[in-house]
Amino acid sequence: MKKYNAFAFILLSSFFFSCDNGKKNEENLFSLDTTDLKEVYQPNESLGLGIKNVENKPVDSIVFYINNKIVGRVKGSEKFAFALKEQKLGYQNIKALVYSEGKSNEITGRIEVVSDVQPKLLKYKILNTYPHDIKAYTQGLEFYRDTLIESTGNGAGNGTGLRGISSLRKTDYKTGKVYKIVELPQNVFAEGTTVLNNKVYQLTYQNNEAYVYNADTFAKEKTFPYFKQMEGWGLSNDGKNLLMSDGTEKIWFVNPADFKEVDYINVYTAGSKIKAVNEMEWIDGKIYANIYTKDAIAIIDPKNGAVEAIVNLSDLKSKVTAHPDLDVLNGIAYNPKTKTIFVTGKNWDKMFEIKIEN
């Protein structure tokens, strides 16, 4: 089986720099000084913000904004230094309001902040192999007490073209036996799932809504609309908030009481953002995430989105039964009792209990 370079799946540079003069009209005589600005920065650097004033107009003051938050004010045309260490990784929208001759002039630009962390490559050891439903198109996986909670989608088979039925199920992880299942309507493609405060939360792919169930009975209790139009992918929680991915580089922190946005991070490695963040698990204060179509786990710092380590699991697919509908690695469940991780994939007939080694 072809081996993947452990870092290949994250080396997807997408740098972009822009600077414009805001409203480009005769009255706007100022622009950002890009002499010392770069396309890409790391968190340990600072921005040197200033303006160009080609006609040498008198300037009373300048107010600088990053992502629509005021970060500094200067008198006249002084330069302003802004440290990036507290900023989220990702694009930083720069705005300056230049006050001159009783008028304000808005000018804008954008830079990108990437991670300065070089991810470690971690090894793993297979401890046990268990049976897994070969028809389960796994979208979410999580332990609740000694039971495995699994969310499956109704993906069409790769080879057979047969569409399954989305479900939420309880499984005996040792035998693979499904002893409780709730099937969803055909028009619902179920995605990630997590358990918080004895409630099971389940995402939908394109229905723009999440479902809440009683963790013991699987009785459906609520339906929440998403806080904006978006796709639902992976779901986890940090003990307080839900963590939701949407197929981009973003991980959203969501209030479980009303499904409103609390915060977000952008997932980056050294030099590039990581899109298609999928199934996730919160383990010892870190986010463990599948990256869609990549047979690896990224370990992410939830404070800033930096990928700290990578576990290359490409060997596992060669250990499951090959069949026309076999799909990608997807599914991470942490068992706090054994302190081990359980992983599987879409339409895999096996689930692996592994231990990650430094």
Describe this structure in words.
It is a single chain. With 358 residues, the chain is mainly β. The chain has 2 domains: 106 residues, chitin-binding protein cbp21 (Coagulation Factor XIII, Chain A, domain 1, Distorted Sandwich), CATH 2.70.50.50; 238 residues, YVTN repeat-like/Quinoprotein amine dehydrogenase (Methylamine Dehydrogenase, Chain H, 7 Propeller). It contains no helices and 32 strands. It starts with 17 loop residues before the first strand and ends with a strand. The N terminus is likely disordered.
List the helices and strands and how they pair.
Blueprint: E1 18-20, E2 30-32, E3 40-41, E4 46-49, E5 51-53, E6 61-66, E7 69-75, E8 80-83, E9 90-100, E10 103-113, E11 120-131, E12 138-144, E13 147-152, E14 167-171, E15 178-183, E16 190-196, E17 199-204, E18 209-214, E19 220-225, E20 235-237, E21 242-245, E22 250-254, E23 261-266, E24 268-269, E25 272-273, E26 277-283, E27 286-291, E28 294-300, E29 307-312, E30 329-335, E31 340-345, E32 350-357
